[in-house]
Fold:
Amino acid sequence: MTPLIAIRGLRKTYLMGDENIHALAGVDLDFQAGEFVAILGPSGSGKSTLMHILGFMDTPSEGSIVFDGREVAVLAPDLRAWYRSNRVGFVFQSFNLLPRLTVEENVALPLLYREGSVPAANLIAARAALERVGMSHRLDHLPSQLSGGERQRVAIARAIVGSPSIIFADEPTGNLDVKNIDRILDLLGSLIKEGITVVLVTHDLSVAEKAHRVISMRAGLVHEDRSR
Ligand SMILES: Nc1ncnc2c1ncn2[C@@H]1O[C@H](COP(=O)(O)OP(=O)(O)OP(=O)(O)O)[C@@H](O)[C@H]1O
Ligand SMILES: [Mg+2]
Structure:
């Protein structure tokens, strides 16, 4: 099967003073449509760097990324923006909600960048996404008026609002209690049934256990890649 994403020789190097930091030191991976993948690894092993590059938030120093048959590692900014807003959903490790926008406006935001988007329809889609994460009762709150777990659920709603092909979630359950972890895992399970690929970073083994495939990273490299 042709993978949804094929990564070859992916490197990200940061120059700090006169030291090169190899955040990604040559990663080869394929992701299939509908896969549920968990990425584990110690702090600093390159997990967020990989997610940011695959989510079109950052560019690699070297290597190839073929997304749906097209090379996307180096794209013009407008094409990168198109992929970011039409093909991927992203849950940041630090949520990145905009402080002056309400919950529903934050969730509707990715739709705003789409061609021909209609504000009223965007808000309807935002409410439906918030319903799926159990946050319908906080539509008009600002992020500062939410708990950490609530902010996390709003960030997840923002990632799914545009019906992406693939969702990258960096520790999406890090601030949640057991009940809400289960709710988010159920939600991810139903997205996978809809054919959406989910790639999540977690330190929680009970979350990783739900994935079909577990990738462990060490020092910017894939250390282990197990499917079951
Ligand atoms: N903008 C940057 N400039 C310089 N070094 C960076 C930058 N971003 C990340 N790094 C370094 O790259 C390495 C990988 O960072 P990354 O954030 O990908 O780790 P991580 O696996 O997500 O860790 P954590 O589990 O703590 O979130 C780290 O050593 C980090 O210090
Ligand atoms: Mg990280």
